[in-house]
Amino acid sequence: MASAEVGDNVLDRDPTVEALEVRAAAVLGMPAALFTPSGTMANLIALSVHLQRGDRFLAPRGAHVLQNELGSAAWLAGGMPDPLEHDAGPGRPTPETLAAAIGPRGAPYYVLRTTLLCLENTHNASGGAVIPPHEHAQLLSTARQAGLRVHLDGARIWHAATALGLPPAALTVGVDTVSACFSKGLGAPVGSVVAGSASFVERARRMRQMLGGGVRQGGVLAAAALVALDRIGDLAEDHEKARKLSAGLAELGWEVNTPETNIVLARVADLAVTLESLGALGVRASALGGRVRFVTHRDLSMADVEEALRRIKAGGHQ
Question: What is the mean pLDDT of residues 200-229?
Fold first, then answer.
């Protein structure tokens, strides 16, 4: 980062940012990409370009664009959000549910106009649940038949690709746009991209500037993101740590999910008391959807996971 070649990414170009955008676009299987300071900004840019004021958009219940972006999709992008139920599995609606939510084509002018589907892979709030390629293709086909555009929130697409043993580009097939984050397990301190066609990125660049995302000597940050792209393969170790943690908690009597990626969710009798007790043991976790959320990452070793389990067992927490 300290030795990155930089320029002015607002006035003309920053060579390191440009190198990141070219590489990220290739990895994601898209024609072009745009660096953004955060994943929330990347999603907001995409929605702002895709939606006209008052357009309805669909996303799986609990999706980041619905729950974790402070209403910016409605307030700034002007969209009307509507959630889809997870009837195909965690974080995944069926094509039938999607089709029913879209409704018939040719509706009268005074009915809400649905123009966009937002998918999320992995679905963070569902414990890092993965959408497999065949389900992705079915949902895209349903959306396309109804004339919808499709944005993929791929903040954690690296985790999905690693879990499936596929390149990230295999999970973006057919989408109009995709966002991806370099700090989700890859180790970069900050930064995301939003990718799509060259014409989309041209419009997205203007929107990024409107939102205050025109980082000038951005190469300092882009350099870390380039290192992050070299680390995608390391995520398999984080997934193994999560499986170890989940199995260990289950042996102690905890009700936990079987993680597909690096997130373990646990149901407990009293969430606040459990989190306080874990904190006292030096085991850091957070709350998500009424459950305890544990996340494994590159700064934790397998020995750290084993130590956490030892402390939880010694503390008598079940």
Answer: 94
